[in-house]
Amino acid sequence: MTFEISSAARSRRSGAIVSSPARRWIWRAVFVFALVWMAAHFITLGALKWGPPVRHDATVLGQMIAVAAFPLLFLLAFGTRNPLRGGIIAGVVGVVALLAVLLHS
Amino acid sequence: MQDTLRTRMGWLHAWVGFAAGLLLFCVFASGCLAVFDTELTRWLQPEASPQTEAFSPQSLDHVLPAVHDLLVQGEKPFITLPSRRDPYLRLEHHDGHEFLTVPYNPKTGERLTVRATAGGTFFYDLHYTMRSGVYGETLVAFVGLALLLTIGSGIIIHLKGLVSDLMLLRPFAARLRAWLDVHVVAAVVFLPFILLMAYSGTFIRARTLFPPVSYLASIENAFRTSVPSTPRRPEKSAVSIPPSFPPLAPLVAEAERTIGAGQTGYILFQPQNILISRTDASGPLLTREHVDFSAEDGHVLRHVLLPGAITHTEQVLKGLHYARWTGVGMRWLYFISGAMGAVMFASGSIIFLMKRRRQSGERLMFRIAEGLAIGSIVGLPLGTLAFFWANRLLPVALHDRPLAEGHVFLAVWVLSAVSGMVWSLLGRPFQGWKIQLFCLAGLGLFLTPLDVATRPGVTFFHVPTVFAATDLVAFFLALVSFQMARRL
Amino acid sequence: MTIILCTFLWSLFLLLQACHEPKMLRFARIQKPAWLQRAAGGRFVLPLVALVLCFAERASTAIPVWVATFSIAALLVALGWAGLARYRELLITAADVRTVGLGKE
User: Fold this and answer.
1) pLDDT band, very low/low/confident/very high, at A9 (cuts 50, 70, 90)
2) Among B43, B98, B100, residue whose Cα is nearest residue B90
3) Which chain A residues are within 8 Å of B12, Cβ to Cβ?
4) Which region, left, alpha or beta, applies to residue B464 given φ > 0 means left and ψ of -120 to 50 means alpha?
5) What mean pLDDT comes out for the span B235-240?
């Protein structure tokens, strides 16, 4: 919050027009969407590796987790005050899911 | 606007909710009709009287020649056995959109002369594909994800008043306040249902969004198949269909010994096999357990029941979503909950437009958005009622009648969307809302007289009351539309 | 039958719950009845009885029926409470008009 207040005050002092945060939120939402979508995709792919041995069950489990994780992760990443922190959370989950696809024997 | 969690979530809720909400309104409205698909099919085939004789398994053999014809045409026919929901024996097959159905007398196996119709499954297809095949399916699954996001953000926004405002409905307050209350009551009170439907529905169609193959591989495959590298192999030779099938009554009895007495629901025919499957009404676990018989001599081939905790979880989710296990009472609860889901989207879209009308009412994008809202919120019910009218008014001998009914539905929906858009672009959106709501009220109000006038052997007191229930729901919709048009 | 009974029990519970919500009481312009103070905790028995009824009928479908009847009951109470509030509002307005009229005389 301190960051927002100080930046708004700075813009007011300098006479610049304070832009609506909505424009920033659009880009943030797009960025978070891309990260979270990839994480959900890697979870589905990874389930075939670390999930149950039967392919059908593994696919179903992966999709169950992906569908549940997508909104939770999106809201978590979009909800953080600091956009970078949100991106890091979604990114880390995506990287872990990717590593599970690549490294699981 | 300050950058806080609540404002961020409010922004997400409003925009994602409006963008997906117009389609989700159609999904929920058609879904709550699809819950009564069998009953609606009975309304749409009024020649089959509400009550009929008791089922005799010997009648099944009279359906076999028609089954054979369908198999020769390359269809996958199946017989639905009589149940408490529907006393007729039905031969069905999927035409790419809906399950076309022909009723047979359950005692004699005699084919009933009824009109060809798309039937209640028209709304089932509309519900999950918007009649656009795999593209529609993907889109509906995608808006399902958007719904999950909207629900999550809505809960965060409304967390403080979640319990205290649970039943706070102020219809006589200021307009925006009243619509907000309608939205909150519809959403919060029916949250368990909406959440379950959103999750299970998205999961059921998840293969379109999250396929178990890498996107890169899919793209590579798409390019690879587009290049004609090798000459096409000749078509696989057609599987031979036996000239006659074994008697079905002993097969049903045998299947009941495995599945349980009175638990058989469908008989699916394949060129080499006959699958007798468990009825979906047996419980919330949609196992689709089946016993397979040889189509040549009727000996048992196998008993298929998928095991495992994950499969069972999947079956429970499907069972709860499809609601085929429910009795009449629970079916009505599903219907009302679905209708309230549709009310939630409609009220949400209206609030979105109301909040922005003063500031952006003159903008082109706003007018287009309002036109789309009219086309969705009033257009879909209009198209639905037009579908019912078409079913009764189109000539019975019309060629490709089920398709014609679908075309009437689509034409009225498109007309409603175009007219809504025109009124909105002309800067008179209220006129657009009003005219269409009055049209909706008229179509709903006169559906009962139409039903009485065009139903052969009409009787007012009979059980079950599929005709009376359909007419009453249309009448109720007419009253609500009339009241809304009057108050605009 | 179970559905009707459960809806009734839920409605009763939610009605009592509404009587405990200051916001709902203010909206309907009514005061909390004194006897409700003594039966404050007792209302929570009603949903449990409804749940037992659902399980007694069919265990595999008990939870969906229980939750669905809650939603219907809440809708019924919301509609009923809105009607009550409107009635009370009109009643009080009429009484005010009468008082003003008498005052003028």
Assistant:
1) very low
2) B100
3) 25, 29, 78
4) beta
5) 59
Pairing type for strands B89-94 and B99-104 reads antiparallel
Q: C105 to chain B nearest CA, in Å? A: 32
Interface present between B and A (3 or more CB pairs within 8 Å): yes
| pLDDT value, residue B212 | 87
Reported as a pLDDT band with limits 50, 70 and 90, residue B221 is: confident
Instruction: Enumerate the residues of chain C whose CB falls inside 8 A of the CB of residue B333.
Output: 3, 65, 68-69, 71-72
Q: How confident is the model at residue B463 (pLDDT cuts 50, 70, 90)?
A: low
Please check whether residue A36 lies inside any domain of the structure: yes
Domain containing residue C38: 2-104
Task: Measure CB to CB from residue C71 to each of B169, B325, B337 and give the nearest one.
Answer: B337
Kindly report the number of other CB atoms within 10 A of residue B487's CB atom. Answer: 10
- The terminus-to-terminus CA distance of chain A in angstroms comes to 46
pLDDT digits (tens, 9 = 90+) for B360-407: 888 899 999 999 999 999 999 999 999 999 999 999 988 889 999 999
Q: What is the pLDDT of residue B316?
A: 92
Cα(C92)–Cα(B169) distance, integer angstroms: 19
Domain, as residue range, for A93: 21-103
**Spans of all domains in chain B:** 1-36+120-213+327-360, 52-118+243-295, 362-488
As given in the structure block, the two tokens for residue B397 are 């001998």
Q: Do B297 and B261 contact (CB within 8 A), yes or no? A: no
Backbone angles phi, psi at B240, to 5 degrees: -75, 140
pLDDT over 90 (residue B481): yes
Average pLDDT, chain B: 89
Bridge partners (DSSP) of residue B273 are B294
| Interchain contact C/A (3 or more Cβ pairs less than 8 Å) | no
CA distance B117 to B392: 10
B322 contacts B35 by C-beta, under 8 angstroms? no
Q: Which two tokens stand for residue B465?
A: 């009351």
- ipTM metric: 0.89
Residue B238: pLDDT band with limits 50, 70, 90: low
The closest alpha carbon to B276, from B296, B258, B260, B292, belongs to B292
Output the six-digit token pair for B87.
Answer: 């006393």
Smallest Cα–Cα separation from B32: which of B347, B439, B333, B393?
Answer: B333
Q: How many Cβ atoms from other residues are within 10 Å of residue B85's Cβ? A: 18
Residue B99 neighbours by CB under 8 Å, 6+ apart: B92, B93, B119, B121
Indicate the DSSP class of residue B294: E
Residue A15's region, left for phi above 0, alpha for psi from -120 to 50, else beta, is left
Q: How confident is the model at residue B96 (pLDDT cuts 50, 70, 90)?
A: confident
Helix (H, G, I), strand (E, B) or coil at C62: helix
Mean pLDDT for chain C? 87
Range B74-96 average pLDDT: 90
Give the number of domains in chain C. Answer: 1
Give the pairing type, strands B89-94 and B300-304.
unpaired
Amino acid, res. C66: W
Return all residues near B391 (Cβ < 8 A) that are at least 6 apart.
Answer: B44, B115, B117, B405
